[in-house]
Design a protein that fits this description.
Blueprint: H1 5-9, H2 21-33, H3 43-53, E1 58-63, E2 68-71, H4 73-79, H5 83-86, H6 107-112, E3 118-128, E4 134-146, E5 149-158, H7 160-208, H8 213-238, H9 247-263, E6 266-270, H10 280-300, E7 305-313, E8 316-323, H11 338-349, E9 353-358, E10 364-371
Parallel strand pairs: 6-7
Antiparallel strand pairs: 1-2, 1-5, 3-4, 4-5, 7-8, 8-10, 9-10
This protein binds adenosine-5'-triphosphate and magnesium ion.
Length: 378
């Protein structure tokens, strides 16, 4: 994608911009403190204008009908329209009111929901540039009234670069997993196999001399054999998976059973009916999301039981990973670790929705849902 020359020159690119909601809230706070009085040139209006020109984000104010009445420099850079071209045009020109893939929040719903006037959440949607290309944006909304009139301040950040980095991280982590899986399988497993042969010989020799140490050698031999089994299971989990149309069900069941063997945590797969996913790339992303969620439950949850469910109903595929552990902490997703962020990128890549929440009775519930994909055209 072409990078706007002006944007390249900016001291802080959007990729570097803080991704926390704090950035949005402080901008909203500033915009709230200075009510614009229909561009009357008052001091507060001028102050507002100068403050908003210094930020990277697009700040767009629209009236109750969704018509744009204010446009800052960030908006011009992000969307390509000059102020005089866009004032009076509908906000829907920038952010389509209907989400194309039928997923994500709709701008209309966000704007006119009866919820709290201050929407503290950020929403990921698609924006449309003046030249027609679509790009991912993160958006935050504030509705406010001036006299009897309602207005909406929309703060929009271009997250193209962040998404690209997420995809890159996902690919790098996939490549690293593959490399470690191969090393474990081809190197460590071979060495361990050689050691089992030696320990077997040692056990035999000690036995022939009727030495009691033969028992110890037998124990060592048994432990090494178990280590080979564990290492193979580990390597298998790291190597890329090949999945046929209904292969996800069996791959998840196998992953769950291997996890139980390795960790001794009770693990169960519930995938009763076939779930046909003809695009194997989608199945592999779902498998990896499930795998990371199960690994997280093992590492962080102190769970006694992990359940993996896969179902399809009316064209909606749902994968859930439920544990009965300590429950994910508030803000865990913002700790800057890789796992959750890669899971999110995978869900996005397959046009899915990922939700991670604490279970009603404790523990953590990870859900990835998506419309059953149609096979890719060859
Ligand atoms: N099932 C869970 N139960 C409790 N806490 C969880 C669970 N899953 C995730 N967490 C918390 O969320 C944090 C972020 O998870 P994430 O997978 O991103 O990172 P990680 O597992 O610590 O490291 P990695 O990048 O290797 O995956 C974890 O460090 C943990 O505190
Ligand atoms: Mg993790």
């Amino acid at each position: 994608m072409k990078l706007n020359a002006q944007r390249r020159k900016r001291p802080f690119s959007n990729a570097q911009a803080p991704t926390s909601r704090r950035g949005f809230s402080s901008l909203h706070a500033r915009s709230k403190s200075i009510r614009i009085s229909s561009a009357d040139g008052s001091r507060s209006a001028l102050e507002f204008r100068s403050v908003t020109q210094s930020v990277d984000e697009a700040i767009v104010i629209s009236d109750a009908h969704g018509k744009i009445i204010f446009w800052n420099g960030g908006a011009k850079i992000i969307f390509g329209y000059a102020e005089k071209e866009i004032i009076g045009k509908p906000l829907a020109l920038l952010i389509p009111t209907q989400s194309s893939a039928g997923r994500g929040a709709k701008l209309e719903q966000l704007l006119f929901s009866k919820a709290s006037p201050i929407d503290s959440k950020t929403h990921e949607l698609r924006g449309i540039h003046k030249d027609g290309h679509r790009f991912p944006v993160e958006l935050s909304l504030l509705s406010w009234a001036f006299g009897a009139k309602a207005f909406f301040t929309t703060i929009i950040r271009d997250i193209t670069e962040r998404k690209r980095l997420q995809r890159e991280i996902m690919e790098i982590s996939g490549r690293e997993q593959k490399r470690i899986g191969q090393e474990l399988h081809d190197d460590l497993c071979q060495q361990l196999t050689a050691i089992t042969l030696l320990s077997e010989v040692l056990e035999k020799k000690l036995g022939e001399k009727s030495l009691v140490e033969a028992k110890d050698a037998a124990e060592i031999h048994k432990l090494i054999v178990q280590s080979i089994i564990d290492t193979r299971l580990l390597a298998k989990g790291l190597l890329p998976v090949e999945l046929g149309p209904d292969g996800l069900r069996s791959a998840l069941a196998e992953m769950v059973s291997n996890t139980e063997k390795l960790t001794h945590i009770h693990c169960r797969a519930e995938c009763k009916k076939p779930v046909l996913i003809r695009d194997s790339a989608v199945a592999v992303h779902l498998y990896r999301i499930g795998q990371e969620a199960v690994t997280n439950a093992v590492k962080h949850a102190r769970a006694k039981e992990i359940v993996v469910k896969l179902s399809e109903s009316r064209g909606q595929i749902v994968l859930s990973i439920i544990d009965d552990g300590v429950g994910i902490a508030e803000g865990a997703a913002r700790r800057g670790r890789l796992g959750l962020s890669v899971m999110n990128s995978r869900a996005e890549t397959i046009n899915g929705t990922l939700r991670i929440r604490r279970g009603d009775k404790g523990g953590t519930v990870v859900t990835c849902s998506l419309h059953a994909p149609t096979p890719r055209a060859k």
